[in-house]
Prior knowledge:
The protein is α+β, with helices and mostly antiparallel strands and 106 residues long. The chain has three helices and five strands. It is globular. The N and C termini lie far apart (27 Å). The mean pLDDT is 93.
Amino acid sequence: MPKITYIEFNGRKHIVDAAPGLSVMECAKQNGVPGIDADCGGGCSCGTCHVYVDPPWQARVGGRNAIEDATIEFASGVEANSRLSCQIKLTDDLDGLVVRLPESQR
C-alpha cells in the first residue's frame, strides 16, 4: 500500500496510506487532507485539486494529458510540476510520493 505525503502551503505534512487504484485526490478526500476541494468530484473540469508534484517524482507520475492541460490553466500559480490530483492514479510504484498544495487552495 503506497504512502503519500501531502504538504500544505504552510509546511504541515499529512502522510497517508493509499489504496492502489485511487487517485491522489480521492486519497486526500478520504483522509481529510485540507486544500484539495475537488469541486467537480474528479471529473477534470474544475482545477480545485491542483497540486505540485515534487521534482524527484515528476517522471514517475508522468505529464498532463490534453484535457488536464486545458483545465489546469484556470488554476492559480500553475508551474511546470503542476498536476490535477484527480488525474494521478496511485500504484505501488508511487509509494513515497510527495505533493505540495498551493496556498490558493487553503
